[in-house]
Write a structure and sequence with these properties.
217 residues; alpha+beta; two-stranded antiparallel ribbon; 7 helices; binds zinc ion; TPR_rpt; DUF2225; coiled coil
Length: 217
């Protein structure tokens, strides 16, 4: 079975065309999951390929989003241009699928989504960085990014309007990230909310197990 294919992208910010290595959906196999549902992959790790970064301007987004993202308004465009310019001075992106390169790309997608006010995707970018640090065996860096992801999920829940169907996922991460970070009371509060409102969702099923672990520990 083939694992990779090549896709051509056009950057929605600068118009540059480039090719990127992609993973076939069928090639991804999940062996197990951690407490926060982080997948442990067999063979290929799709997290190393998920973010597309324009090699010319460093505009970055998840592969599903990259070409369809709308950058609205002059202010947004200016802000993004400035931040990407600063990023280009600070870091060099290589066309490699290593954990270190993937972290850089998720950091860039975090910047882009934050300028575009897509806080859930900022949170997910940081969560993925934490997960890669976990795979690298760097617990302090992992914790730093779990905290950042948690802050973004909190603000998303508090200030943004989101799809009702997203709420179980958001509540689950508010619970489980607090749990991992040792905030037991906060974790319990979010799990109660998740179980009270969305008892039939898949996230509630996992949330119920985590909540029981929390009460037992
Ligand atoms: Zn570009």
């Amino acid at each position: 079975m083939r694992t990779f294919w090549e896709k051509e992208f056009t950057c929605p910010f600068c118009g540059h065309r480039f090719k990127k290595k992609m993973v076939f959906f069928d090639a991804v196999k999940i062996k197990s999951r951690d407490i926060d549902l982080k997948p442990i992959f067999e063979d290929v790790n799709p997290m190393l390929y998920e973010v597309v970064t324009c090699p010319n301007c460093y505009f970055s987004a998840f592969d599903r989003d990259f070409e369809t993202i709308k950058i609205k308004g002059e202010e947004t465009e200016k802000k993004l241009k400035k931040l990407l310019e600063e990023a280009r001075k600070k870091i060099k992106i290589k066309d490699e699928e290593t954990p270190t390169e993937a972290i850089k790309r998720y950091a860039l997608s975090g910047i882009v989504y934050s300028v575009l006010n897509q806080r859930k995707k900022v949170a997910i970018s940081y969560l993925k960085i934490a997960w890669i640090f976990r795979e690298m065996g760097k617990p302090e860096d992992e914790k730093r990014y779990l905290e950042r992801a948690l802050r973004e999920f909190e603000n998303h829940f508090k200030y943004d309007s989101y799809e009702e169907s997203d709420e179980p996922m958001i509540l689950f991460y508010l619970g489980v990230l607090n749990q991992i970070l040792g905030n037991r009371k906060e974790a319990a509060r979010w799990y109660e909310r998740l179980l009270g409102k969305h008892r039939d969702s898949l996230y509630a099923k996992v949330g119920r197990e985590r909540w029981q672990d929390l009460r037992r520990s």
